[in-house]
Amino acid sequence: MSGDASALLAQIAHIGVDPERGGYTRPVFSAPELELRAWFIAQADHRGLDVEIDGNGVIWAWWDAPDARRVDAIATGSHLDSVPGGGNLDGPLGIASALAAVDVLRERGIRPVRPLVVAAFPEEEGSRFGIACLGTRLLAGLVDPQRVRELRDDKGVTFAEAARGAGLDPALIGPDAARLAAISAFVELHVEQGRGLEDLGQSVALAGAIIAHGRWHVRIDGRGDHAGATRMADRQDPVVVAAETVRALRAHALVVDDARGTIGRIKVTPGGTNVIAASVDLWMDVRHRDEPAVRRIVEEVTAATERSAAAEGCTVKVTEQSFSPTVAFDNGLRERMHAVLPDAPVLDTGAGHDAGVLAGVIPTGMLFVRNPTGASHTPAEAARPEDVAVGVIALADVLETLITR
Ligand code: HGY
Ligand code: MN
Ligand code: MN
Ligand code: MN
């Protein structure tokens, strides 16, 4: 089992399987994700790594240096939570590869002169509480802890309640500058979410940049009524306004070179076939390499929605949930990684990552492993075992250079 990330992934392949959607549904602090957290802790314990869980629910598994001082540490890792109906690789591949890389380094007889810590960050997808990379944003002090405590999932459970259910003390949620100051570099390995490596015919790439991306909640209120008893002229139908939002987002994303606009989640209330909706909630995900372009698209779509709402006698409220500016990864670290992996191409990505958040506070780099389908956030996400194995060795080689000097 040692050094074999595919075998480690096989151990969790039964956890959080979603028969209705296909793939995996592992919301943060849900039963499946708690099972994955326990698996990670058991794997870390099995390797003699010293495990601690911080106030935000980040699991840190330490391979200490001989002097046991936890300064100038090298961190690696990723996340265990998933989107609804996601793959088993987005997140867990980075964790499994980090554990396997520890095995490889030990087999090489490597003795760290600085500690190596493997981290599992909670709520990277933001699928349960709405804010992407919530664990790393809390750690870095980029989101208000009280706002986070009060976030509610779609069943009304607060983050504080869910955290308590995971054995955490919500009072301890918040930034940890001292911990970040003790980390001198972070390297995340992740399955590629795109076909760059497949088209290049290579197994591993370095990350260049993450495009700017954000998510907005759109709430449209109308007037619920009977589908049969209400004349068309008398309606204030929020679904009609939502349709305009969908149309406008597609139209505006198409006219801006390589922008990405998505509405993947819409909630109609009360949700009866013979009921005119009282309200609609939808969430927009908008991305582009330039932040101003993202902002412009959101403004245009908001204006179109407001026009449609006025015509329909509805009201609308657009609220920013989270935003990540364009991230360019640390050149110095990437040069060191490139020295180890001279043949690896450098690819930008449209997918957000915890590494994208941490890049704002510590030198950060990413490795991508080939995904033959290029698909992600779907059961079609894939990685060949031979590419996973190449990824583990690449990560081990990068970590070896970082922890031995
Ligand atoms: O949404 C993203 O880009 C990431 O997979 N969380
Ligand atoms: Mn991910
Ligand atoms: Mn993801
Ligand atoms: Mn009736």
Automatic annotation (TrEMBL):
<dbReference type="GO" id="GO:0003837">
    <property type="term" value="F:beta-ureidopropionase activity"/>
</dbReference>
<dbReference type="GO" id="GO:0016813">
    <property type="term" value="F:hydrolase activity, acting on carbon-nitrogen (but not peptide) bonds, in linear amidines"/>
</dbReference>
<feature type="binding site">
    <location>
        <position position="377"/>
    </location>
    <ligand>
        <name>Zn(2+) 2</name>
    </ligand>
</feature>
<comment type="similarity">
    <text>Belongs to the peptidase M20 family.</text>
</comment>
<feature type="binding site">
    <location>
        <position position="90"/>
    </location>
    <ligand>
        <name>Zn(2+) 2</name>
    </ligand>
</feature>
<dbReference type="Pfam" id="PF01546">
    <property type="entry name" value="Peptidase_M20"/>
</dbReference>
<protein>
    <submittedName>
        <fullName>N-carbamoyl-L-amino-acid hydrolase</fullName>
        <ecNumber>3.5.1.6</ecNumber>
        <ecNumber>3.5.1.87</ecNumber>
    </submittedName>
</protein>
<feature type="binding site">
    <location>
        <position position="90"/>
    </location>
    <ligand>
        <name>Zn(2+) 1</name>
    </ligand>
</feature>
<dbReference type="GO" id="GO:0046872">
    <property type="term" value="F:metal ion binding"/>
</dbReference>
<feature type="binding site">
    <location>
        <position position="79"/>
    </location>
    <ligand>
        <name>Zn(2+) 1</name>
    </ligand>
</feature>
<keyword id="KW-0862">Zinc</keyword>
<feature type="binding site">
    <location>
        <position position="125"/>
    </location>
    <ligand>
        <name>Zn(2+) 2</name>
    </ligand>
</feature>
<feature type="binding site">
    <location>
        <position position="274"/>
    </location>
    <ligand>
        <name>allantoate</name>
    </ligand>
</feature>
<feature type="binding site">
    <location>
        <position position="287"/>
    </location>
    <ligand>
        <name>allantoate</name>
    </ligand>
</feature>
<dbReference type="InterPro" id="IPR036264">
    <property type="entry name" value="Bact_exopeptidase_dim_dom"/>
</dbReference>
<dbReference type="InterPro" id="IPR010158">
    <property type="entry name" value="Amidase_Cbmase"/>
</dbReference>
<keyword id="KW-0378">Hydrolase</keyword>
<dbReference type="InterPro" id="IPR002933">
    <property type="entry name" value="Peptidase_M20"/>
</dbReference>
<dbReference type="GO" id="GO:0050538">
    <property type="term" value="F:N-carbamoyl-L-amino-acid hydrolase activity"/>
</dbReference>
<keyword id="KW-0479">Metal-binding</keyword>
<feature type="binding site">
    <location>
        <position position="215"/>
    </location>
    <ligand>
        <name>allantoate</name>
    </ligand>
</feature>
<feature type="binding site">
    <location>
        <position position="190"/>
    </location>
    <ligand>
        <name>Zn(2+) 1</name>
    </ligand>
</feature>
